Structure formats: structure tokens, C-alpha cells
């Protein structure tokens, strides 16, 4: 109850919440491909409260509607700013933004995204929305329609934490998505055994067969990165490349590119 109250206050004041950006790199070149926006809460008395703690509270209280809209707007505003400073001809950066289960069940999310794109000047092709496997499978037919509408705006969709939910393979090929994110538990287990490497390989083969890009998350060592490169993984994310960082630091990365 206390945290709920405090989160509500944080959303009203708009001073304690901020967005961290974690680089996503192209595996072949090592170049910056995009960022994932990750919300952070700096509580005035308790310090940093992990999103694993406050996102579930936001979900169960409905505060996620306001919080999700705030993160979306902030991340879209940021990518529009970064695109503006890039040289013409340089590859487009994308911004990956998490959508919670609750947002995925809200038909208003389509008009929210449309409005935020218009307000911030972000182009739909720069935006990728991440949804978890379980959120989609919970109400698959409804989710598929919503994914179609979102993609109809021109934005990209990605399945997060792939392999940890109960994904029905019979649905996977029907999902209107662009990429799969291999859950970090698989990536982190790769060095342990050939079996674990085979699991990652099979997820990648499946993704390619279905026409999806693959993003591996939780890459912590150069050994992991090499294994994934050998599997022709498209994009990578993890502490080996960079941790989630404040916008000012990410801004320097964007600027350092040319
Ligand atoms: O940095 P990490 O501890 O940031 O994130 C923990 C979890 O919180 C992850 O599962 C991540 O997807 C989730 N998360 C981070 N930011 C957001 C957000 O803006 N919206 C939603 N729905 N989840 C988020
Ligand atoms: O659930 P989701 O995939 O959205 O979560 C992203 C989370 O993963 C964030 O909490 C982020 O801080 C964390 N993360 C990013 N890179 C790494 C990594 O290399 N190792 C670990 N353990 N966590 C990571
Ligand atoms: Na995510
Ligand atoms: Mn994930």
C-alpha cells in the first residue's frame, strides 16, 4: 500500500522516475543498432527500487496505464532527438519499449501509440514494442488482433523473454511480429553444455524459419558473444557490451558514432 501510494505520487510529480537506455548492437559489426528503454525509480527515502518490484504493483493497481504512457512518450521523444542529430545516410537507430500485459489487453493502446508518435515526431519504423510470450499467449486471438493494429501503424513488434513462457508453437507462426528476444537464461547457460547451446541454436533456426530477427539478451562475456556470432544471431544486448545507462551517457554513444 505504501509503495502504491509513493508510486502514485512519483507519477504525479514526475521527478523520481527516469528512463535508462541499454544499447543493442549488431552482432556482426558490433555497431550500435538501438536501445531498450528501461524505467527506473529513485525513491526519495528508499533509493533505487527495482522495476521487478514496482512494475507488478503498477500492473495490479492500474498505475501501469499512466506509467506505461509516460515511458512510451519519454522514449519516443528521446529517439526522435537522437535521430535528429545523426548524419543523413547513417543507419536508423531503433528504440525498444516494453509493453506490459495490461497494456496489451487495452485496445486504447493503439491510439495512445499513434498520438505519442505524432506528438514526439518519432517515426513508427524507429519504434519496437516488446511484449512477453506469456502476455501474448494468455489471450492469443485478442493479442494477435492488437499486434496487427500496432504493426499497421508501421511500428515493429518483438517477443521478449522468448522460451520462458508457455509458447504454443501452433500460434508462433501466426504472430504478427518482427523479432524474438532469446531470454537471458538461455544465453547465460550456453557456456555450460552443448545441450544448452543446442537450445539457443534451435530457437534461432525456428526464428529464421518464421522470418523473425533474433536478439540475444544477457550477453555477459566475449565467449558468449562469439558463440552467438557463430550462430548468426542478428542483435545482442548485455553487460558485455553495455549496461543500461542514463540518457546523457547514451547520448554520448550516439554522438561518438560519427
Ligand atoms: O533493468 P531491469 O531490472 O530493468 O528490468 C526488470 C524488468 O522490468 C524487466 O522484465 C523489464 O522488461 C521490466 N521493465 C523495465 N522497464 C519497463 C517498462 O517501462 N515497462 C514495463 N512494462 N516493464 C519494464
Ligand atoms: O525482462 P527484460 O528482458 O525486459 O529485462 C531486461 C533486464 O535485463 C533489465 O533488468 C536489464 O537490466 C537486464 N540485463 C541486461 N543485460 C543484462 C546482462 O548482461 N545480464 C543480466 N544478468 N541482466 C541483464
Ligand atoms: Na524487455
Ligand atoms: Mn527480456
Automatic annotation (TrEMBL):
Q: Which domain of life is it from?
A: Bacteria
Question: Which residue range or ranges hold the EAL domain?
Answer: 1-258
- Please report the name of this protein according to its UniProt entry: EAL domain-containing protein
Q: Which residues of the full protein are shown?
A: 318 to 575 of 582
Amino acid at each position: 500500500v505504501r509503495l502504491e501510494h509513493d508510486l502514485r505520487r512519483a507519477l504525479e510529480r514526475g521527478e523520481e522516475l527516469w528512463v535508462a537506455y541499454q544499447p543493442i548492437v549488431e552482432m556482426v559489426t558490433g555497431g550500435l543498432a538501438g536501445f531498450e528503454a528501461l524505467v527506473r525509480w529513485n525513491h526519495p527515502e528508499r533509493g533505487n527500487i527495482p522495476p521487478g518490484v514496482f512494475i507488478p504493483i503498477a500492473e495490479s493497481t492500474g498505475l501501469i496505464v499512466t506509467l506505461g504512457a509516460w515511458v512510451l512518450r519519454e522514449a519516443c521523444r528521446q529517439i526522435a532527438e537522437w535521430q535528429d542529430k545523426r548524419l543523413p545516410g547513417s543507419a536508423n537507430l531503433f528504440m525498444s519499449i516494453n509493453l506490459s500485459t495490461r497494456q496489451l489487453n487495452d485496445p486504447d493502446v493503439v491510439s495512445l501509440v499513434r498520438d505519442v508518435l505524432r506528438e514526439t515526431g518519432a517515426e513508427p519504423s524507429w519504434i519496437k514494442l516488446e511484449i512477453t510470450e506469456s502476455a501474448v499467449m494468455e489471450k492469443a486471438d485478442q493479442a494477435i488482433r492488437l499486434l496487427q493494429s500496432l504493426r499497421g501503424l508501421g511500428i515493429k513488434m518483438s517477443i521478449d523473454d522468448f522460451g520462458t513462457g508457455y509458447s504454443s508453437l501452433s500460434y508462433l507462426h501466426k504472430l504478427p511480429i518482427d523479432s524474438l528476444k532469446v531470454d537471458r537464461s538461455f544465453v547465460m547457460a550456453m557456456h555450460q553444455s552443448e545441450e544448452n547451446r543446442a537450445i539457443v541454436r534451435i530457437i534461432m533456426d525456428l526464428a529464421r524459419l518464421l522470418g523473425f530477427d533474433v536478439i540475444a539478451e544477457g550477453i555477459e562475456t566475449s565467449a558468449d558473444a562469439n558463440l552467438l556470432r557463430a550462430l548468426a544471431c542478428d542483435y545482442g544486448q548485455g553487460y558485455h557490451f553495455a549496461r543500461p545507462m542514463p540518457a546523457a551517457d547514451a547520448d554520448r554513444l550516439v554522438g561518438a558514432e560519427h
